[in-house]
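[job 4471] stage=fold_predict status=RUNNING
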Amino acid sequence: MASSQLRKRVPHTKPPFTLADLKKAIPPHCFERFLLRSLLYVVCDLSAVFLLYYSTTYLHLLPSPHLAYIAWPVYWFLQGCVFTGVWMIAHECGHHGFSKYKLFNDTLGLVLHSALLIPYFSWKYSHRRHHSNTGSLENDELFVPKLKSKVPWFSEYLNNPPGRALRLATTLIIGLPLYYIFNVSGRDYQRFASHFDPNSRIYSDQERLQIYISDVGVFATIYLLYKLALAEGFAWLMCVYGMPYLVHNALVVTIMYLHHTHPDLPHYDSSEWDWLRGALSTVDRDYGFFLNTLFHNITDAHVVHHLISTIPHYRAV
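[job 4471] inference complete, writing structure tokens
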């Protein structure tokens, strides 16, 4: 969509409809969540993870050793895409769009996100606040453009091709862990904030126990990866898990950033912001049928996801 076309559609004024009007316009079956159907996507994703890993055990049979220099990056990219699909399923569990059973959603989400070194409940609660404050300059949890007065002094020195390349590489490779650990690019809480800290100002007193549970899940995965590295070697672990994990990081950062960033996309201060205008201030992005399918359509149906996040991904489009 051309910039001028999108600008005409930007909902910078109060919409002439309500969320209730939108819900009435959506066919009732789109709100239905089927546990078995949702589980089928989990089985497909995990089967793809296993099959891709299993395929690496045959790389030594390639007719030329040099072909491995092509085969491994292909594996890293494809496995990273599938990891991202698994991340999307766990993200849907956090919104309780996976099924109508809250405990089942949280249990599955905890397992899947922990396997990707993501603190499930920590992410769930901060992400819920992002959905509650989308587009708010003061209260959104992430993707908030900085005011001129708060732009760091060193930014002007990075506003050149090498500087932009460095910032882009850093954001794509380790941006996701930096956000979880140090709340980099997150909301300013006026003091240190971390998704791994149960006492962080990100969370309420009622949520702190679950933050501990999230930490246990991530550290259990780290310990398992450590044992695998001892058994199989660090190089093996980096090839089969580490590199796909970095691809997954880059994809999640890219997808989430582009949903909330566009030259014509409005952000509101407290005098103008309301929930509906904020929820409409997101962008659908089309990555093509193959990637949209692997990412469970969180990419090309993101606006409706912000409006009604309990709609399962297979109903969103």
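[job 4471] summary: The chain has a mean pLDDT of 93.
[job 4471] exit 0
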